[in-house]
Amino acid sequence: MQFQNSLEFARQLDAEDPLRKYRDEFHFPKVNGKQVIYFTGNSLGLQPKRTQKFVDEVMNDWAALAVEGHFHAEKPWWDYHEKLAAPLAMVVGARPEEVTVMNTLTVNLHLLMVSFYRPTAKRYKIICEEKAFPSDQYMFDSQLRFHGLDPNDALVELKKREGEHYWRTEDIIKKIEETGDELALVLIGGVNYYSGQVFDMQEITKAGKAVGAMVGWDLAHAVGNIELLLHDWGVDFAAWCSYKYMNSGPGNASGVFVNQRHLNKKDIQRFEGWWGTKKETRFLMKPEFEPMENADAWQISNAPILSVAPYLASLGMFEEVGMNALIDKRKKIVAYLEFILEEIDKEVDGTFEVITPPDRGCQLSVFLHGQGKPLFDYLMENGVITDWREPNVIRLAPAPFYCSYEDMYRFGQILKKGILKNT
Ligand SMILES: *Cc1c(COP(=O)(O)O)cnc(C)c1O
């Protein structure tokens, strides 16, 4: 399609957008009385209007029923989390029994490492990407120290080539093969939070399994964004947060995937609690732990219902729309955004560099050469909510659920004015 940098053209794309009605299903912050152009759905997704009802229902049941709500609420709390498994399985390409919701992301990655990082004298190394999201770096370091290992030896960081902004799959595979039978675990962010690069999860998982390692993925920036086929790819485990593209609210409950091949096994190491035991006998309060046959075996505590409720509300929207329609719009709106950037770049004379490779999801990370923080401040003051990383990278994620093509056009105009003003 031949794009045009004009308001009429952007509005035409919106008129043809099968998802256009969903924009009104979200609350938008306002700047100067106008809805913002929201590019930070990769950090905290907007609030769906229907979420309030789901939270109110829990609050009302709690007020009216108190402890009885566990079994007699409109949606009883004791197994409320089970309602999320089927829609989440659809989003991540899993079987419903492989998916559960619990805790928060870094906590879950730690818990999954308890089960799937079992270092031995020979096989103890972990492969991750260099400059991983800081929480992941702290997790690797503390896990290795917990096992009495030296991160300088046991942690193998994947490097990018000199002067390149992205990792090459062939380099990753080579590193996995080189590490070979010393490799215990591959654990990478499926979509890199900084550059927006999408890793070839299928090929990397295959390579990791071929040398006998466990393969897990941190899907914080992948879930609800790109196509995932965790089961078919043979991934061992994965975890993600629900507050980025999944629009479930700040600090909200995390999702977990455990491959079917690890379910229902007696010899697995795991930190356990009462919500992981068979629900049929849970309230007999017996001393023996009998694991649930699905990923719920990893649950420890009873579920945080006030946190799970917004996740259920949001998953209803993902179910209605389906990942294919979201991905179709995401590709088109990201392509339009890149086109707008190129057009503005010509008008202001060459300052942008998109560092996100073609293997991408919703996010474009852009170097604004010659620009600094004042431009970012100008964008924010003019209702463009974006994210600035020193020295001069902005990350733009036009979430397909609620961003419009008109937003992209208007962003271009504000960006141009901001640059002309600052130079
Ligand atoms: C957002 C993000 C996290 C956040 O971790 P929490 O435990 O939810 O605070 C972790 N890892 C990656 C890669 C992220 O992008």
Short recap of the structure:
With 423 residues, the chain is of the alpha/beta class. It has helices at residues 7-15, 51-65, 69-72, 82-92, 105-116, 134-146, 151-154, 169-179, 201-210, 230-233, 305-321, 323-348, 373-381, 405-422, and strands spanning 26-27, 30-31, 34-35, 37-38, 47-48, 99-102, 125-129, 155-158, 183-189, 214-218, 237-240, 254-258, 352-354, 364-368, 384-385, 387-389, 393-396.
Structure description:
The model has no long low-confidence stretch (mean pLDDT 96). This protein has two domains: 127 residues, Aspartate Aminotransferase, domain 1 (Alpha-Beta Complex), CATH 3.90.1150; 270 residues, Aspartate Aminotransferase, domain 2. α8 runs parallel beside α9. It has a seven-stranded mixed sheet with strand order 6-12-11-10-9-7-8, with helices on both faces. The radius of gyration is 23 Å and the shape is globular. It is an alpha/beta fold. The longest helix has 26 residues. α9 links the parallel β9 and β10. Pyridoxal-5'-phosphate binds next to α5 and α6.
Would you tell me the overall average pLDDT?
96
What structural category arises from helix and sheet content? alpha/beta
Q: Give me the number of helical elements.
A: 14
* Terminal-residue CA separation: 33 Å
Biggest sheet layout: 7 strands, mixed
Q: What CATH architecture of the largest domain would you give?
A: 3-Layer(aba) Sandwich
Considering the protein shown, what is the CATH homologous superfamily of the largest domain?
Type I PLP-dependent aspartate aminotransferase-like (Major domain)
Total of domains: 2
Provide the CATH topology of the largest domain: Aspartate Aminotransferase, domain 2
Strand content: 5-15%
What binds here, in terms of ligands, is: pyridoxal-5'-phosphate
Which percent range fits the helix content? 25-40%
Q: Nearest-angstrom radius of gyration?
A: 23 Å
Enzyme class: hydrolase
EC number: 3.7.1.3
Function: Catalyzes the cleavage of L-kynurenine (L-Kyn) and L-3-hydroxykynurenine (L-3OHKyn) into anthranilic acid (AA) and 3-hydroxyanthranilic acid (3-OHAA), respectively.
GO molecular function, one term: kynureninase activity
